[in-house]
Amino acid sequence: MLALPPLGLVVLVIAALASPDRLAYLARLLDPSVIATLFVVELVVLGWRLVASADAFRRGEGRVGGRASALSALGVALVLVPSVYAAYLTQVAYESAASIFSAVETPRPSGPTATPEPDPSNIAMETGSPAPSIAPGSGRFTVLFIGVDWQPGRNTFLTDTMIVGSLDPVSNAVSMVSMPRDTVDVPLGDGRVFRGKINSLVAYVRNHPKQFPDAPSGETVLANALGTLLGVKVDGWVEVNMPGFIDVVDSLRGINVTVDDGFCDPTYHGPGFPDGFSITVGRWHLDGEEALAYARVRKASG
Questions:
Q1: What pLDDT is recorded for position 46?
Q2: I need a labelling partner for 224 at 20 to 30 A (CA). Which of 22, 110, 197, 300 fits?
Q3: Angle at which helices 242-251 and 288-296 pack, to 10 degrees?
């Protein structure tokens, strides 16, 4: 009776790891409702094991003060201490998950939001709609921040950076979720699913406008898709390309970066650095071109 619950857990874990959907099973463990259910299961298992300990005492000498009493007390302690600690950890996990996922408990968007068609030659930032002045007590305002890999001389237009940021004016806090660019099978909000990598959705919409007759831009479709995926209403979007990234940093008069590990990438070819980029350990003040190179280098020697 003591061994049955952990053995059952081992079987479930092995079955989950053997499943092709093991990542989905792992993701479900982060759901607050699943964690709450796990807490209830732990209480049931605790009761089960206390009954098992009492049964062991009954099957032993069955009287207080004998060797069976000492062994039973030890068994109860070995059951109670880890069970209570596991329940404590579960409660902490539940509170953490509830605080993280409270931001996405809003209605899903019913359709695309209105934004102008962006021109990839524009150098800085493009926004779907200006952020309204939010009075205390009003609802959240959620924006999709987009970074594309376009610059003069490049034919690609991939949204390699996608960050959903949500402002809560009540708690004066901002929650941000960065979406992996290789995410696939994302729902579009109209019942369809985009099977390709999500960073190519904007380009796909631009190349297939007849499939999205009501969408003012590919960025709008992307914002609606990520809003559907996360269960939030995305109120607008902001986009910056690589020249825009440089202009943003330069408008801040540069940024300070502490480099813990120096590197050299002779294969990097970008604005200001046609023959490679390198940096040494230390604290540096980078301008826009230097910051772009520092952010983009991924093939450093060694």
A1: 82
A2: 22
A3: 130
Q: Which domains does the chain have, with CATH numbers?
A: 4-104 (no CATH), 125-242 (3.30.420.590), 252-296 (no CATH)
Report the distance separating Cα 143 and Cα 21, nearest Å: 31
- The pLDDT tens digits of the residues spanning 176-217 come to 999 999 999 999 988 899 999 999 999 999 899 999 998 889
Cβ–Cβ contacts within 10 Å for residue 193, how many? 10
Q: How far is CA 72 from the centre of its chain?
A: 46
Which token pair is 191? Answer: 């019942």
Binned at pLDDT 50, 70 and 90, residue 133 comes out as: very low
**Residue 79 and residue 71: Cα distance in Å, rounded?**
12
Q: Report which residue type is found at 14.
A: I
Q: Is the pTM of this model over 0.85?
A: no
Element (H, E) at 237: strand 236-240
Both structure tokens of 162? 């996608």
